[in-house]
Task: structure prediction
Amino acid sequence: MQTVLTQLNAVPGVVGSMLCDGDGRCVAQAFPSLFDATLLGEAARVVADGTAGLELSAEAASVVDFRYGESRLLLKALARGTLLVLCSQDTNPQFLTPSLTVAASKLARLQAAPSTTPAPPTAVPVTAPAAPGDEVGGRRSPKLGVPAPTRGLEELHRRLSASKGPK
Result:
């Protein structure tokens, strides 16, 4: 994944790129060291929460282009996340979009490929049984250590589930 992002960064005007999963985690990133990992993690969460509101889907061939003072932010949806590209204001999107589409396709294949290394065992958190007042809308409250998902993620999950129905 890192190689694909590095190749995408070679397009003139691209500052950095990042792959975010649907849960708002940074899967891979290729940004200069100037960008703090905490800042990139927060950006991944914002992108995941906003994906439902923007109605981004992997089936759409579109790229969402946000323009800011001196920069642009391009988003391309994948089946399991979103590709985010930060570039300069004068970057030609018609030149960048084909590279973005190719990179998204490669990253989607890499995400779908089975891992060659076994995943480390995951620890299951042990929490106390929920008291009658600890449920919030059918979900555990954050005070039990299991934060409730955001509304944006719930909406994204609902839309993805609805679009993947039987064919």
Notes: Helices lie at 2-9, 37-54, 93-112, 151-163.
